[in-house]
Amino acid sequence: xxxxxxxxxxxxxxxxxxxxxxxxxxxxxxxxxxxxxxxxxxxxxxxxxxxxxxxxxxxxxxxxxxxxxxxxxxxxxxxxxxxxxxxxxxxxxxxxxxxxxxxxxxxxxxxxxxxxxxxxxxxxxxxxxxxxxxxxxxxxxxxxxxxxxxxxxxxxxxxxxxxxxxxxxxxxxxxxxxxxxxxxxxxxxxxxxxxxxxxxxxxxxxxxxxxxxxxxxxx
Length: 219
Hints:
- The structure is a single chain.
- The protein has a single domain, classed as Rossmann fold (3-Layer(aba) Sandwich), CATH 3.40.50.450.
- The chain is globular.
- The longest helix has 16 residues, at 203-218.
- Helices cover 41% and strands 17% of the residues.
- The protein is an alpha/beta fold.
- It has a nine-stranded mixed beta sheet with strand order 1-2-6-5-4-3-7-8-9, with helices on both faces.
């Protein structure tokens, strides 16, 4: 399976800031072909397990891949699966950040997708081989997903879910957070907007906002 252990600094190719060090794992386990330290801008695409806007998620991911962004997600059912599979079908690169060790599969239905990502792209886990899958793994996974990404795009969400947690973690880490305008009715989305999150309507608007945000953040 080709699993190896690397520090977060080795993975990113740079030291962590004081803010990033809080809640960051010291090391992670990786499997896949993508070069380490990671290259290129990485954008996390996140959403719920029961997506309503499947075609919107596909369009957003495809637009990001066309611009050369590496797609990061959590390999969960729903939006995560759509993000990974769309990136692969479009000939892009994708990174799966797992809530389980690399020798286990969650959800089991994504076993084939996980194995393909481990062969052809990159899978990352902060949990050692053989470890049990615990409830607390999921927020940890979301924090690490935000940490390794340059920006996060929220396609769909519900109150109290993992997507909301991931969004707040992106804000804490000072990553650009871009939220589909269809979620603007959620009170916590409005709170995120006050904290710097940006709303977008179309893929073109997303790409323009993302370009500006990344230029300002990482120049």
